[in-house]
């Protein structure tokens, strides 16, 4: 399968939701699927060897969607592009696309504006989130996939909290540390802007503040007890006014793998993640202090450590991922079976790479010779230089359709100057274009050429492509190719 992951941001230091998504993408890639990431903001060029392409332009996104069998999305980035693609697909016969939304908290995907008609499958990270969200479309549960060997360490000596955001219970952490000066604490900062961090002069001397690491083992190797006082969905347990709630508790599972006892604020997410392998408390700060003192006893710590370590008996990340991929493959196959009306040209070069286009053009001896505007030059020469080798994925190089269904100012200027396009004839020939009140030339550049429509009575698109198969493979608009190369006679319409 060709897989696009469309997200808002690819962070240099990812949060739990992003880590879970990267695990899914890595598994897809390692099992032979072609995976690419497109985002609004990229803080890194690749994720586990998967190319990252940062773009907000409709052109790049539609190229990516044309290439893909499925789009995996988080949050809001894909909402409008998905709707635009589907409106265009229904009108012009592009391949059907399977959209999969990954929900990591309550209210998603509703809270970002998606409806059941936008998404083919919602993948919830917990059963309780799926139940409480009330999504009526197709859905499944995929717990965050955590591979024990990536987190297993020998526990350290600190009482640790990861992420000091207010909603994560940052204020409780500092109060506990102040009340227990005889214990050593470690405070690991998180990504949120509302980190609760007292001025240096007011911090307890028994707390060491440290930034989060891309290698969490460095943190767990210094941790003896992990605190997770994140707020739950109960209104009586809110640290912040936000309706956010801890939907799973990934760090709790990661720590438990090494037998690190977990003390958490009771809630449905952490309970589904750890079951009876954690100690659950209310907001009563005395109870937190008493529990930490209890775990200071070696025998009590050892007993709770063994209970936490039993999480290894139930984790099955490979099995979970395989079940997801089988489900995804079934959805993609079902979409394909419903696209029998698609014109054959969309399958001509479905999985070919840009270098294959280039090789065939070179061997044919018909590489376009453009003598028009600079924009037109760039457009027609793209077939020779799509992959720069700089680590950034060029979506224009991975087309699913043999023609680029995109408008170009340079191409439009070139065609208008050549007088090779007859707007009045085009409207009369194709009444659907006239009825839609679309600019005829724009329609031809974006859709008409790919649909085999003729630009004038003097040029027959399908015949030209049949006589010049390398043009179909290259993705260059056939009329632009004709204008910018030496041809004694256009393929005239027989009608």
Written account of the structure:
- The structure is a single chain.
- It contains 20 helices and 14 strands.
- About 15% of the residues have low confidence.
- Strand 1, helix 1 and strand 2 form a beta-alpha-beta unit.
- The chain has an 8-stranded mixed beta sheet.
- The radius of gyration is 28 Å and the shape is elongated.
- Helix 13 packs across helix 14.
- It has 495 residues and is of the alpha/beta class.
- It has 3 domains: 169 residues, Glycogen Phosphorylase B (Rossmann fold, 3-Layer(aba) Sandwich); 166 residues, Rossmann fold (3-Layer(aba) Sandwich), CATH 3.40.50.2000; 137 residues, no CATH class.
Give the topology:
Layout: E1 2-10, H1 16-30, E2 34-42, E3 46-47, E4 50-54, H2 58-67, E5 70-73, H3 79-92, E6 98-103, E7 121-124, H4 127-133, E8 139-141, E9 158-162, H5 170-179, E10 185-188, E11 207-210, H6 217-220, E12 223-228, H7 250-257, E13 262-265, H8 268-274, E14 279-281, H9 285-294, H10 298-309, H11 317-337, H12 354-364, H13 374-381, H14 409-418, H15 423-429, H16 431-436, H17 440-448, H18 461-467, H19 469-474, H20 478-483
Parallel strand pairs: 1-2, 1-5, 2-4, 5-6, 6-7, 7-8, 9-10, 9-12, 10-11, 12-13, 13-14
Antiparallel strand pairs: 3-4
Helix pairs in contact: 13-14
């Amino acid at each position: 399968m060709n897989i696009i992951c469309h997200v808002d941001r690819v962070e240099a230091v990812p949060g739990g939701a992003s880590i879970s998504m990267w695990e899914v993408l890595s598994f897809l890639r390692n099992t032979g699927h072609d995976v690419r990431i497109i985002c609004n903001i990229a803080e890194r060029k690749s994720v586990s060897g998967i190319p990252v392409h940062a773009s907000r332009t409709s052109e790049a996104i539609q190229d990516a969607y044309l290439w893909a069998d499925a789009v995996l999305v988080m949050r809001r980035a894909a909402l409008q592009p998905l709707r635009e693609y589907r409106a265009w697909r229904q009108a012009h016969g592009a391949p059907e696309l399977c959209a999969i939304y990954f929900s990591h908290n309550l209210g998603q995907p509703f809270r970002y504006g998606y409806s059941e008609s936008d998404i083919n499958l919602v993948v919830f990270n917990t059963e309780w989130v799926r139940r409480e969200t009330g999504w009526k479309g197709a859905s499944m549960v995929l717990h965050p996939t955590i591979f024990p060997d990536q987190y297993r360490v020998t526990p350290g000596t600190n009482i640790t909290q990861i992420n000091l955001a207010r909603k994560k219970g940052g204020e409780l952490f500092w109060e506990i540390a102040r009340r227990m000066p005889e214990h050593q604490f470690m405070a690991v900062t998180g990504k949120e802007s509302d980190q609760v961090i007292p001025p240096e002069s007011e911090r307890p001397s028994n707390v060491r503040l440290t930034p989060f690491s891309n290698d969490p083992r460095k943190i767990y190797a210094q941790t003896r007890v992990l605190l997770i006082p994140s707020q739950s969905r109960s209104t009586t347990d809110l640290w912040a006014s936000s309706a956010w709630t801890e939907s799973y508790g990934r760090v709790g599972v990661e720590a438990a793998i090494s037998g690190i006892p977990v003390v958490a604020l009771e809630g449905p997410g952490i309970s589904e993640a750890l079951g009876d392998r954690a100690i659950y408390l209310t907001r009563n700060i005395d109870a937190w202090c008493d529990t930490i003192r209890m775990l200071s006893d070696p025998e009590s710590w050892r007993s709770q450590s063994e209970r936490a370590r039993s999480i290894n008996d139930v984790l099955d990340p490979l099995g979970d991922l395989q079940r997801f991929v089988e489900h995804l493959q079934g959805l993609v196959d079902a979409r394909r079976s419903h696209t029998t009306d698609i014109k054959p040209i969309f399958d001509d070069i479905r999985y070919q790479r840009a270098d294959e286009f280039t090789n065939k053009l070179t061997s044919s001896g018909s590489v376009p010779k453009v003598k028009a505007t600079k924009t037109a030059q760039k457009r027609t020469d793209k077939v020779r230089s799509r992959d720069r080798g700089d680590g950034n994925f060029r979506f224009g190089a991975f087309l699913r359709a043999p023609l680029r269904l995109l408008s170009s100012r340079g191409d439009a200027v070139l065609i208008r100057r050549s007088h090779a396009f007859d707007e009045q004839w085009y409207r009369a020939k194709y009444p659907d274009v006239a009825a839609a009140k679309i600019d005829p030339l724009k329609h031809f550049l974006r859709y008409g050429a790919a649909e085999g429509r003729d630009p004038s009575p003097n040029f027959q698109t399908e015949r030209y492509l049949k006589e010049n198969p390398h043009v179909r493979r290259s993705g260059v608009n056939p009329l632009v190719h004709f204008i910018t190369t030496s041809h004694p006679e256009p393929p005239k319409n027989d009608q």
